[in-house]
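Thread: quick sanity check before group meeting

JM: Hey all, I'm pulling together slides for Thursday and realized we never actually wrote out the predicted structure for the chain we discussed last week. Dropping the sequence here so it's in one place. If anyone has concerns about the input, flag it before I start.
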Amino acid sequence: MTHGHTTLTIALAGLLQALQFVAPANAAETITFAPGAFVMLYRDYLVDTDRFTITPPKGEGDACFRIDKVGKTEITMTLISGPYHPWWSDANIPPGWVDIWTNSPGYTENRPTARPLELLEQIFINVESCPAS
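JM (edit): ok, ran it. Output follows.
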């Protein structure tokens, strides 16, 4: 019975590891980028493995942004509520911070035929409004 239990444990561990990643969703069904819309990160893209996780990056999952401007290759967003503590910052970034988002260089290198804004369509989701900080 120990061998069967070990095999089942290994199989379950492999399944759990596989479930950490999901294929990109159909962008047309998941996100609408329009000025005034609110969005939150709901998953992350890992350049090294060219895969998406099922959770947002650590420190970024509670951040809510308002879309201010949508261009052909970039989106300008304002942080409305947080906390927002991306990996590159030493501290939480306060509401009111404005940033321009684009496909990352690693994403376009891994996917040379990617449409502009394709990465953003895969990692953000629309929300009705931003929660209070």
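AS: nice. The longest strand covers residues 64-70. Confidence is low (pLDDT under 50) at residues 6-28.
JM: adding both to the slides.
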